[in-house]
Write a structure and sequence with these properties.
The complex is a heterodimer of chains A (about 600) and B (about 200). With about 600 residues, chain A is α/β, with parallel strands linked by helices. Chain A contains 23 helices and 18 strands. Chain A has 3 domains: about 180 residues, 3-Layer(aba) Sandwich (Rossmann fold), CATH 3.40.50; about 160 residues, TPP-binding domain (Rossmann fold), CATH 3.40.50.1220; about 180 residues, 3-Layer(aba) Sandwich (Rossmann fold), CATH 3.40.50. Chain A has a 6-stranded parallel β-sheet with strand order 2-1-3-4-6-5, sandwiched between helices. Chain A has a 6-stranded parallel β-sheet with strand order 9-8-7-10-11-12, with helices on both faces. A 6-stranded parallel β-sheet of chain A has the order 14-13-15-16-18-17, with helices on both faces. In chain A, strand 10, helix 13 and strand 11 form a beta-alpha-beta unit. In chain A, helix 2 crosses helix 3, helix 9 packs across helix 14 and helix 16 crosses helix 17. Chain A is globular, with a radius of gyration of 24 Å. With about 200 residues, chain B is of the alpha+beta class. Chain B folds into 2 domains: about 80 residues, 2-Layer Sandwich (Alpha-Beta Plaits); about 70 residues, Alpha-Beta Plaits. Chain B is built from 4 helices and 11 strands. Chain B is elongated. Chain B starts with 18 loop residues before the first strand and ends in an 8-residue tail after the last strand. Classes of the chains: A alpha/beta (about 600), B alpha+beta (about 200). The interface between A and B is large, with 57 and 42 residues. Bound molecules: thiamine diphosphate (TPP) and magnesium ion. Chain B: Catalyzes the conversion of 2 pyruvate molecules into acetolactate in the first common step of the biosynthetic pathway of the branched-amino acids such as leucine, isoleucine, and valine. Chain B: Keywords: Amino-acid biosynthesis, Branched-chain amino acid biosynthesis, Transferase. Chain B: Dimer of large and small chains.
C-alpha cells in the first residue's frame, strides 16, 4: 500500500507474509485443502481474513503458494467484519477463515451481522475430524448447528472429492439473489485427504433460482398507480446498493421527479445533496424524511425489509399510502408492511421495467413543494457555543469537508454512528459501511481494514467510532499497522456508551447505570503503542489541523476527539411511535 | 442535555388519520376485527441431507409460527424427502411461513394442500389390559387393530385424520391409557393433483 514508516520491523528484509508464494498459477489440487483453495481461486477471491488454529491448519497450509492474499486478524470477529466490509465496498464476496470451536464461535457475531445486512460473506471453519465429531472432542462445536439461523445456507463438508464444489457453491450462493453469509465447516480429515479433483467454476445449486424480472402485468398496474399518485415517494434501501442499481434509481427519481428517502443501508444510492433527496428516514432520520413517509399516498419501496427502526409502529407507518414493494426476496414482501403491489425481482431490472411501463410523471408539484417546505421547517443543525465542549456534528462535517466524495466511512454503533450518517453528506453508494440490522459495536475498525483492502487507493477510509465501540475491537489496530493500511479512525469520545446514556436520560430518569466510563484509556497514546499515529483534540481550533495531519499520514491514524459528553442525537422517533412523532429535543420525548 | 433541533413540535404537526393493523395492512380501525387464524397443511419437498429437519423446525420456532405437527420421510427419489407441516396462523402468517420455508436453500418446493387433501395420522394407544375384548371392539369401530397384548396392557393402532384420532383417544380413555404416541399428519393431494 505505501512505504513502511514507523514500524519497528523496518530493518527486516522479508516477513513470512512476503515469503508466501503466489506465482500466478492456480493451486494444484492434491487434497481437500488444496481443492478448497483452488475453488476460492476459481471464484476470483483475491483477499481473505482469518486466524489460524489446529483444525483449519491444512487449509492455511494450502494457501502457501496461492495468489490469494491472507490478512491475519487479531480476533475472528474482526475477520468476519473485515470480510463483510470488503464485500460492501467492492461488491465481491468477502471471505473469512477460522479454526473450529472458539475460532468458529468468535465468527458468529460477524456472521449474524452479515446476515442482517444481506452481505455476501463466506466463512470457512475448521472442524475436528469426522471420526471425532459428536464426541465433544477438543475444540469441537456444532458450527453448522450454531450458524444455521444466521446463514443463508451452511454446509458440512464430508468428502475431499466434493469439498471444492461445496466451497465454490458457498461463494456463488453468498453473492447471488439476495446476498447473505454462507459457511462451510471443514473437518480436518476432509481437508487432509487426498484428491485430485479440480472443483471447476463455482455454481449455485440447481434448485436456487431467484426471480430477476417482475411479472409484466404487475409492473403495468404498478406503473399506472405511480402515474396517478398525488404524493409519490421513493424509498431506496440497501437492496439498491446490493443490486448496483443506483444508476437506475437516480434515473427513475430524476426523470419522474419523485422525492426520495433512503433507509440507513440505502444511504448513497442517491446523492444526499440532490434537491429530490430527503436523506434517510427512521428513528434518527431527518424530520423531513419522516414527514414524507407519513404523508405519502404511494410509497415505492425498493430493496428494503421495513425494519422497525425505519417504520416505528407498524400501525402508524405510512398510514395513507399504498405500497409498491420491489424486492428480490419474496419473503420480505408483506412480511412487516403489506404490499399492495408486490414486484419480485432485481432492483435495477424492475426499476427499468417500471420505467418502460410509465409514460408520464405523476402530477406532484404540490407534494414536491411540501417536501421542500419540510426541509426548511426541520433543518438539521447544531450550535457551537464557545463555552461548551466540542460538538460531534462539527467533527463529522469537518471530516467530510476534508475528504473526497468517494471517501468511505465506517462506524461503530451508537450516537456517533447516527451523527456520522446524519452530518456526512454521502453522494455515492458503497461509501457508507455500517452495522445496521444487528447494531454491532466494534464493527467500525475491522470494517475499515476490510474497506481499505477493497477500495481504490485514492479513496480515503475513515472510521467514525465511539469510545465504547473502539474498545470492543481495538486489537485490530495491530493489523492495520502490520499491513500498513492507510485508515483514519476518528473517535467521537464522550466517555460514555452514549446512546445508552441518552436513553437513560429520556426513559430512565437519568440514572446512568453502567453507562459512563469512570476511566478510559488515552486513545492517542494507545494508538502510538500499537505503532499507529495518534492525536488528541479538545478544541474547535485543533480539529482541522488534526484531520489534515491524520489524512496526510500514510498509515493508520487515530484522532481522539473529546466531544461534549452531554450531546444527544435528534431527531428521535420514540420506539414504536409514528414517524412524524419525532422529538427535536429531550422534552418532546 | 443538548443537541436539540428547530422546528414545529410533534403536537403541531398534522398527522394523517389512516391506520394499519399489526400485519401492516391498511384498515378502517372502526370495523377491523382481530385476524382469524386457520389451519394450513404445507408440504415441502427437500434435499434429503443432514440438518434439513433441524433447519425447518428451527425456522418455525425462531419465527414464532404456530406449528401443530411435522412429519418427515423419504420419497422414491433417494435424494429427496417430503416434510408435511400443519400450522395454525392468520392468513399473512401462512403466506410468510410458505415463503420462509421456500427460502431455505435445501427446500426445493413448497405447496399448501387443498382443504380436501388426504390427511392421515398414525397413533399407537396402549390401554389397560383388563378388558381386551372391549378394547378390540372399540378399535374395530375406528378401523384400527390390536397390535400387542400382554397381561397388563393392550396396544391398538389407529390411522386416520387428526379429528378421528382425537375421538379415538377420547373413547379409549375410559379403559385407562398407559401410553400413547402419534405421528402427526402426513398428507397428499387427491387424484391427479400433484402435491409439489
Ligand atoms: C456488541 C454490542 N453490545 C452492546 C450494544 C448496546 N449499545 C448500543 S449503543 C451503545 C453505546 C455505544 O457506545 P459508544 O461506542 O461509545 O458510542 P456513543 O453512543 O457513545 O457514540 C451500546 C452499549 C451494542 N449495540 N452492541
Ligand atoms: Mg461513547
Amino acid at each position: 500500500m505505501s512505504e513502511r514508516t514507523t514500524k519497528q520491523r523496518e530493518t527486516e528484509e522479508t516477513t513470512d507474509a512476503d515469503a508466501k508464494g503466489g506465482d500466478g498459477t492456480p493451486t494444484t489440487v492434491t487434497s481437500g485443502a488444496t481443492s478448497t483453495v483452488r475453488a476460492l481461486e476459481n471464484a476470483g477471491i483475491e483477499t481473505m481474513f482469518g486466524v489460524q488454529g489446529g483444525a483449519i491448519m491444512p487449509v492455511y497450509d494450502a494457501l502457501w503458494g496461492s495468489d490469494i492474499d491472507h490478512v491475519m486478524m487479531a480476533h475472528e470477529q474482526g475477520a468476519a467484519h473485515a470480510a463483510d466490509a470488503y464485500n460492501v465496498v467492492s461488491g465481491r464476496p468477502g471471505v473469512c477463515l477460522a479454526t473450529s470451536g472458539p475460532g468458529a464461535t468468535n465468527l458468529v457475531t460477524g456472521i449474524a451481522d452479515a446476515n442482517m445486512d444481506s452481505d455476501a460473506v463466506v466463512a470457512l471453519t475448521g472442524q475436528v475430524p469426522q471420526s471425532m465429531v459428536g464426541s465433544d472432542a477438543f475444540q469441537e462445536t456444532d458450527t453448522t448447528g450454531i450458524t444455521a439461523p444466521i446463514t443463508k445456507n451452511n454446509y458440512f463438508a464430508s468428502d475431499a472429492d466434493t469439498v471444492g464444489d461445496t466451497v465454490g457453491e458457498a461463494v456463488a450462493l453468498a453473492g447471488s439473489g439476495r446476498p447473505g453469509p454462507t459457511l462451510v465447516d471443514l473437518p480436518k480429515d476432509v481437508t487432509n485427504n487426498e484428491t485430485d479433483r479440480d472443483p471447476g467454476m463455482p455454481q449455485t445449486p440447481e434448485t436456487y433460482t431467484p426471480q430477476e424480472e417482475a411479472d409484466a402485468d404487475a409492473v403495468e398496474t404498478a406503473a399506472h398507480t405511480i402515474e396517478a399518485a398525488d404524493r409519490p415517494l421513493l424509498l431506496f434501501g440497501g437492496g439498491v446498493v446490493k443490486a448496483d442499481a443506483s444508476e437506475e434509481a437516480r434515473a427513475f427519481a430524476t426523470e419522474y421527479e419523485i422525492p426520495v428517502v433512503t433507509t440507513m443501508p440505502g444511504i448513497g444510492t442517491v446523492p444526499e445533496d440532490h434537491d429530490l433527496c430527503l436523506s434517510w428516514a427512521g428513528m434518527h432520520g431527518t424530520g423531513y424524511a419522516n414527514m414524507a413517509i407519513n404523508h405519502t399516498d404511494l410509497l415505492i419501496a425498493v430493496g428494503t425489509r421495513f425494519d422497525d427502526r425505519l417504520t416505528g409502529g407498524i400501525e402508524t407507518f405510512a398510514p395513507d399510502a399504498e405500497v409498491i414493494h420491489v424486492d428480490i426476496d419474496p419473503a420480505e414482501v408483506s412480511k412487516n408492511i403489506h404490499a399492495d403491489y408486490p414486484l419480485i425481482g432485481d432492483a435495477g431490472r424492475v426499476l427499468e421495467q417500471l420505467h418502460d411501463a410509465l409514460p408520464e410523471a405523476p402530477d406532484a408539484d404540490e407534494w414536491r413543494e411540501q417536501c421542500q417546505t419540510w426541509k426548511t421547517e426541520y433543518p438539521m443543525g447544531y450550535a457551537t457555543p464557545d463555552d461548551e465542549p466540542l460538538k460531534p456534528q462539527f467533527v463529522v462535517e469537518a471530516l467530510d469537508e476534508a475528504t473526497s466524495d468517494e471517501a468511505i466511512v465506517t462506524s461503530g454503533v451508537g450516537q456517533h454512528q447516527m451523527w456520522a450518517s446524519q452530518y456526512w453528506t454521502f453522494r455515492e453508494p458503497r461509501t457508507w459501511v455500517s452495522s445496521h440490522g444487528l447494531g454491532t459495536m466494534g464493527y467500525g475498525l475491522p470494517a475499515a481494514i476490510g474497506a481499505r483492502l477493497a477500495a481504490d487507493d485514492d479513496e480515503e477510509v475513515v472510521c467514525v467510532d465511539g469510545d465504547g465501540s473502539f474498545l470492543m475491537t481495538v486489537q485490530e489496530l495491530s493489523v492495520a499497522v502490520r499491513e500498513d493500511l492507510d485508515i483514519t479512525v476518528a473517535i467521537l469520545n464522550n466517555e460514555y456508551i452514549g446512546m445508552v446514556r441518552q436513553w437513560q436520560d429520556a426513559f430512565f430518569e437519568g440514572r446512568h447505570m453502567a453507562a459512563g466510563y469512570s476511566w478510559i484509556p488515552e486513545f492517542d497514546k494507545l494508538a502510538e503503542a500499537f505503532g499507529a499515529r495518534g492525536w488528541r483534540v479538545d478544541d474547535y481550533d485543533e480539529v482541522a489541523d488534526a484531520i489534515e495531519a491524520a489524512l496526510d499520514y500514510d498509515g493508520p491514524s487515530v484522532i481522539d476527539f473529546h466531544i461534549d459528553p452531554a450531546e444527544n442525537v435528534y431527531p428521535m422517533v420514540p420506539s414504536g411511535g409514528a414517524n412524524d412523532e419525532f422529538a427535536l429535543s429531550e422534552d418532546q420525548l | 442535555m443538548s443537541g436539540g433541533l428547530e422546528g414545529p413540535p410533534p403536537e403541531e404537526r398534522a398527522s394523517p388519520d389512516g391506520r394499519r393493523n399489526s400485519q401492516g395492512i391498511r384498515i378502517d380501525p372502526e370495523v377491523e376485527a382481530e385476524p382469524e387464524s386457520r389451519r394450513a397443511v404445507l408440504s415441502a419437498l427437500v434435499q434429503h441431507e443432514p440438518g434439513v429437519l433441524a433447519n425447518v423446525s428451527g425456522l418455525f420456532r425462531r419465527r414464532q409460527f404456530n406449528i401443530e405437527s411435522l412429519t418427515v420421510g423419504p420419497t422414491t427419489d433417494g435424494d429427496r424427502a417430503r416434510i408435511t407441516l400443519e400450522i395454525d396462523e392468520p392468513e399473512p402468517g401462512i403466506e410468510q411461513a410458505k415463503k420462509q420455508l421456500q427460502k431455505l436453500v435445501p427446500v426445493i418446493a413448497v405447496t399448501e394442500l387443498e382443504p380436501d387433501a388426504i390427511r392421515r395420522e398414525l397413533a399407537l394407544i396402549k390401554v389397560d389390559g383388563s378388558a381386551p375384548d372391549q378394547v378390540g371392539a372399540v378399535a374395530e369401530m375406528y378401523d384400527g387393530k390390536t397390535v400387542d397384548v400382554s397381561r397388563e396392557s393392550v396396544t391398538v393402532e389407529i390411522t386416520g385424520s387428526e379429528q378421528k384420532i382425537d375421538a379415538a383417544v377420547e373413547t379409549f380413555g375410559r379403559f385407562g391409557i398407559h401410553e400413547i404416541v402419534r405421528t402427526g399428519t402426513a398428507a397428499l393431494e387427491r387424484g391427479t393433483r400433484k402435491t409439489t
